[in-house]
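Ticket #4471: structure output looks truncated?

Reporter: J.K.
Steps to reproduce: submitted the chain below (254 residues) through the standard prediction queue, then opened the result file.
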Amino acid sequence: MMSDIVPLEWTMQRRREKPLPYLVAQYLREAVRQGKLRPGQRLPGEYQLAEQFNVSRATLRAAIQMLLAHGVLERRHGVGTFVTDSSLLSIEEGLESLVSTTEIIRQHGYEPGTSQIRSEIIPASSQLSEILKVPTETPLLHLSRTRTANQKPVIQSEEYLPTSFLNFETSPPRPGDWSLYELLKSTGAPVVSAVCKVTAVAADGNLSQELKVPLHYPLLLLRQIHYSAEHVPVLYCENYHNSSMIEFQVLRHS
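Returned output as attached by the reporter:
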């Protein structure tokens, strides 16, 4: 039944510190996962759904727009809004272990891939030199790539590492779907630990385009400094995660 779309705990959930359009989109996505909304099924009318969620029609439209952008819903002119036939992506991962992005995606049953790959050699800025503990102007490899799961963009990665660890200093290697963990391991500087900071950010114009999300859409930014066995910084990453497709969890003990 269409009334089953909105769960009983919605009244409490909407009090959380998240924008209402995001919460509405989250619940509609969950309704698709649970089979309450099936592929090819038409959504109830805008007025009816807004009434069920007890939100304004403007809020509902914003939520629908998010799901349209992610390919969860599609509009058919003059007919209505429908659930698409494409499968939804859902990746839940702990932060306790060092696992490559490729492996995380594969472990969840999706096909990992990379698009929009760019690589360049840049001089270390004062900020990057402080993070990587190298002199300013040290040659760094900057690798920018969009990571995909089943050909859908899920992570925008900006990665920096001293070229001295990769045995080249003047020109970047040919772009490809690299595992930097494997590259560092092969050159004798395997990653054994990392310090990670998680921040909520809003998608700017570039991130909106790369991840195919609306402007100002909430993303999870993971800033990670990776260390060798000698506790030398060998890699710094800024990974922007689509928050509607990827969640992180941490196991805590008393």
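Triage note (M.O.): checked the attachment and the full token line is present. The radius of gyration is 21 Å.
Status: closed, working as intended.
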